[in-house]
Design brief:
alpha/beta, Quinone Oxidoreductase, Chain A, domain 1, Rossmann fold, 2 domains, 7-stranded mixed beta sheet, 6-stranded parallel beta sheet, 14 helices, 28% helix, Alcohol dehydrogenase, ADH-like_C
């Protein structure tokens, strides 16, 4: 089968880092850590697994972080090389183990990519006992090779390949009422819902969503669809992002210009001060800040833009950040929280997987896939797809997907 494979040997990793300084194309050309290859189809690890033929696969920001080697090497023990990239998925079951009675050959399904204790066929660790699957303690054990999610595990394959496998506990059947183009957006919506559900604002709150890529936009969208009446400000780099943020329910959009801190301070009633050395700081700020970027600037400014004892939520996959001043954490007594993947959420008196909640919201409201999915590619054109997905301003790209025939 054809698949885009990531293989980060030490030599190839260093060579790609060096050549990448010349041109970003070296991160995804034939000399890089990723290649389109013909590889064997993955086999069922046990009779509790299904094999899925890929229909659609999305390019996630985490995939771009991987390709451009922005991820910290500290996460390398929690992957198994080489692996097929891709966790945003939609496909059809083509094979199933004898113990799989919940699904049939031909079912159209999505797969929650988290490789927790259930997927590894192990007794549940303390995290999984609490249904906090994204923080599973057994991500290197059990039936599978190391990997936090599908798309970082040698055993399962990934959605950037023609076939992948999944444990029956991961699989969700897609209702006939949900279109293919809607179903492929379950994953990014779940990634937005997880931090939203864990940090849901009060209606009286002032909320800042920093970043208007797919996750930032869906944070705004999901807040409004879940009935949040808080005042929402979004920071958007590009006009097409700003327009969509307003359409999705932001009260206002601020562009990250040189004086944008002053503009934001007026919105939330904060006061700005200029230190004897360095950038401006703030007293006061927003009740909740969702940082959907995770760069040095967004972390620095995002924490200062959070009011005393407010919540700063790091949604973007930050890695090594040099010379980051952490003063606002203790000076403002901030609640600093992270959000990784998806898990299980509390909805009234019920517990529901984030993936299922995302699918339910799409069933209930629909999702404007025609505005969010901006580009479609064949897997043979993966290099062009990466180029477009990583060139948001010039290409006006939001979600880029592979469509398998």
């Amino acid at each position: 089968m054809k698949a885009v494979v990531f293989d980060a040997s030490v030599g190839k990793y260093i060579r790609t880092l060096v050549l990448g300084k010349i041109s970003k194309k070296f991160f995804y050309n034939r000399l890089s850590c990723i290649q389109l290859k013909d590889i064997p189809e993955p086999k069922l690890p046990s009779e509790n697994y299904v094999k899925i033929k890929t229909m659609y696969a999305g390019i996630c920001g985490s995939d771009l972080n991987l390709i451009f080697l922005h991820d910290s090497p500290s996460t390398s023990p929690f992957a198994s090389f080489p692996f097929v990239i891709g966790h945003e998925n939609l496909g059809v079951i083509v094979e199933k183990g004898e113990n799989v009675t919940e699904f049939e050959i031909g079912d159209r399904v999505i797969v929650d990519p988290v490789l927790d204790c259930d997927a590894r066929e192990l007794p549940r660790c303390p995290s999984c006992q609490e249904e906090e699957f994204s923080t599973c303690l057994n991500i290197t054990e059990g039936k599978l090779k190391p990997g936090t999610i599908m798309g970082a595990c040698n055993s399962t394959g990934g959605s950037w390949g023609e076939y992948f496998v999944a444990h029956k506990s991961q699989v969700i059947k897609v209702p006939n009422s949900v279109k293919d183009e809607e179903a492929i957006l379950v994953d990014p919506l779940a990634s937005a819902l997880h931090p939203v559900m864990r940090n849901f604002p009060k209606d009286s709150d002032m909320v800042l969503v920093y970043g208007a890529g797919i996750i930032g936009l869906l944070v705004v969208w999901s807040l409004r669809k879940l009935g949040c009446k808080a005042d929402i400000t979004t920071i958007a780099k590009y006009k097409f992002q700003a327009d969509l943020a307003m359409e999705f329910g932001a009260n206002r959009v601020v562009r990250p210009s040189e004086d944008y801190l002053e503009e934001l301070a007026k919105v939330c009633g904060a006061k700005i001060f200029k230190p004897m050395i360095g950038e401006k700081v703030l007293l006061g700020g927003f009740d909740k800040v969702f940082d959907c970027v995770g760069s040095k600037k967004t972390i620095r400014d995002g924490m200062w833009l959070t009011k005393q004892r407010g919540s700063y939520v790091l949604v973007g996959l930050a890695s090594v950040v040099k010379d980051l001043d952490l003063t606002p954490i203790w000076f403002k007594e901030l609640n600093v929280k992270g959000a990784y993947c998806y898990s299980t959420e509390n909805v009234n008196e019920y517990r529901i997987s984030t993936y299922q909640l995302a699918l339910n919201l799409i069933q209930q409201f629909g999702i404007p896939y025609d505005k969010l999915i901006t580009h479609y590619f064949n897997i043979n054109d993966y290099q062009k797809a990466i180029e477009v997905a990583s060139s948001k301003g010039s290409e006006k790209s939001i979600k880029v997907v592979f469509k398998f025939l």
